[in-house]
């Protein structure tokens, strides 16, 4: 469990529990992450950076909570909700829940915060707005992943493309995987590639952490022939780190969520989710008192993107043509 409160100057104050909030009139942003979420070098770490950047800019306090079990996370949720609904002061408080595992609790309890006009709630990511108090947003990964799948056809020395998905229930994971598969299948490669899909968990919310030994076994089992060079595409949050650690030298790898670099890995394609920028935008909006009820972001507005290394050649014209095709398919699919 990690509890931190950061000041405007960037100093970090460690607190033993959420009840020991610092007495201050400065607005407070409280976050409860997924189990052991921080340190994933991916989605959750980017959320942390975005929140801290915005909080420092506005002079807000932050309290970042990382439970070490789902039960502990629910206990923190109850504690924070109880604090926020019963507060008698005029301190503005924003609670952020970046974990779909808390969906049931959030939807059953969000109206409790209506008792406090100075309390606000931001829940992500979901495409279903909250009834009652609270804001939500969803980042559509389909278009960027469509581009990634299309471009993976250029991994000419990789006979096998291994698409690793956390689980078949988390919405953004499923739709990201669908975008990648559709992009991959939109063209016929002369290199006769095989696309394989592997789910790390069959449990809702599972598959975002993985042992290195398991990652190595999955990698080896994906090979058709012993000499195959497998290209790994990990849509599985922090579990991606296990694959990155076990890859043989000069293997192929598609970075997901954040830019990944290693001189020993051929990482020409990075599919990026700019969740840090979106979080900063939302805290800016909250600071102005204009927190949106619900929004869907995607490739067109820069919430997702794709970065190619200097070794992956594609003309500017072809890149823009592919981007526009991906945006069109994304927006048709979700009726934007």
Characterization of the model:
α5 links the parallel β8 (160-165) and β9 (194-199). The chain has two domains: 2-124, Response regulator (Rossmann fold); 142-272 and 302-333, Rossmann fold (3-Layer(aba) Sandwich). The protein has helices spanning 43-58, 70-86, 103-109, 142-151, 171-185, 212-221, 240-246, 275-287, 316-333; strands spanning 2-6, 12-14, 28-32, 61-66, 93-97, 119-124, 135-139, 160-165, 194-199, 230-235, 252-257, 266-273, 294-297, 304-308. It is elongated. α4 (142-151) packs parallel to α5 (171-185), α4 (142-151) packs across α9 (316-333) and α6 (212-221) crosses α7. The chain is of the alpha/beta class. The chain is 34% helix and 23% strand. It is built from nine helices and 14 strands. The strands form two sheets. An eight-stranded mixed β-sheet has the order 2-1-4-3-5-6-7-13, with helices on both faces. A six-stranded mixed β-sheet has the order 9-8-10-11-12-14, with helices on both faces.
């Amino acid at each position: 469990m990690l509890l931190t409160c950061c000041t405007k100057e960037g100093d970090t104050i460690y607190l033993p529990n959420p009840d020991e909030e610092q007495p201050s009139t400065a607005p407070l942003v409280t976050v409860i992450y997924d189990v052991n979420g921080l340190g994933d070098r991916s989605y959750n770490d980017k959320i942390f950076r975005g929140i801290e950047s915005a909080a420092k800019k506005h002079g807000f306090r932050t309290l970042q909570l990382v439970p070490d079990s789902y039960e502990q996370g629910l206990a923190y949720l109850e504690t924070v909700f109880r604090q926020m609904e019963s507060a008698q002061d005029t301190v503005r408080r924003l609670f952020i829940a970046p974990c779909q595992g808390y969906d049931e609790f959030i939807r059953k309890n969000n109206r409790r915060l209506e008792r406090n006009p100075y309390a606000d709630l931001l829940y992500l990511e979901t495409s279903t707005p909250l009834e009652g108090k609270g804001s939500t947003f969803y980042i559509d990964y389909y278009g960027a992943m469509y581009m990634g799948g299309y471009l993976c056809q250029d991994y000419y020395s990789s006979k096998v493309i291994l698409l690793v998905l956390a689980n078949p229930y988390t919405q953004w994971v499923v739709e990201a995987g669908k975008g990648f598969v559709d992009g991959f299948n939109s063209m016929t490669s002369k290199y006769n590639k095989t696309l394989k899909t592997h789910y790390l968990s069959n449990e809702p919310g599972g598959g975002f952490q993985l042992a290195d030994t398991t990652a190595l076994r999955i990698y080896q089992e994906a090979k058709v022939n012993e000499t195959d060079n497998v290209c790994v595409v990990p849509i599985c949050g922090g579990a991606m780190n296990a694959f990155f650690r076990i890859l043989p030298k000069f293997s192929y790898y598609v970075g997901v969520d954040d830019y990944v670099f290693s001189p020993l890995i051929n990482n020409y394609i990075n599919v990026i989710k700019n969740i840090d920028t979106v979080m900063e935008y939302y805290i800016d909006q909250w600071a102005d008192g204009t927190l949106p009820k619900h929004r869907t972001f995607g490739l067109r507005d820069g919430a997702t993107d794709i970065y190619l290394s200097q070794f992956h050649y594609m003309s500017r014209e072809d890149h823009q043509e592919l981007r526009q095709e991906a945006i069109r398919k994304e927006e048709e699919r979700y009726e934007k």
